[in-house]
Amino acid sequence: MAYDSDNVFAKILRGELPTNKIYEDEYCIAFPDLNPKTPVHVLVIPKGEYTDFSDFTARATPAEIAGFFKSVGKVAQQLGLPEKGYRLVMNIGHDGGQVVPHLHVHVLGGKKLPV
Ligand code: 5GP
Fold first, then answer.
1. Among candidates 106, 92, 96, which has minimal Cα distance to 51?
2. How far away, in angstroms, is 61 Cα from ligand 1 center?
3. What is the pTM assigned to this prediction?
4. How many CB atoms lie within 10 A of CB 34?
5. Ligand 1: residues whose CB is within 6 Å?
6. Beta carbons of 111 and 38 less than 8 angstroms apart
7. 31, exposed or middle or buried, with CB in 10 Å at 0-12, 13-18, 19+?
8. How far is CA 55 from CA 2, 45, 52, 79, in A?
9. Do residues 13 and 59 touch, judged by C-beta distance below 8 A?
10. CB contact at 8 A, 27 and 45
11. Are 56 and 69 in contact (CB under 8 A)?
């Protein structure tokens, strides 16, 4: 699927939609989910235009991929999640339940999550 530059996260990246950015570096930005499912629910998105995990792993450079995942770890650290634990979720495509077609990692925590 071609990247749709009108998607909501592309607009957030371009500063066309407001968000409460909690973290930014050369690889990503992170901001709270609009409809949090857990006490802590943050989205981490790469700055590059990738529709989903499959697109990212196919087209991004190894440095971008490593940098992005290191950044996700930094976000979790900043949120104070590693001590008690947390969950990372990536919904991929139609069957995966992905709604916004720009790769994002859900960082979920702040309570014991059901298995
Ligand atoms: P998906 O189902 O694509 O993995 O998750 C998309 C997530 O983006 C949902 O959890 C939804 O609440 C969140 N979301 C959708 N639109 C916005 C928005 O404009 N701002 C923020 N912060 N989150 C959004």
1. 92
2. 26
3. 0.98
4. 9
5. 8, 17, 19, 31-35, 91, 97-100
6. yes
7. buried
8. 10, 13, 5, 28
9. no
10. no
11. no
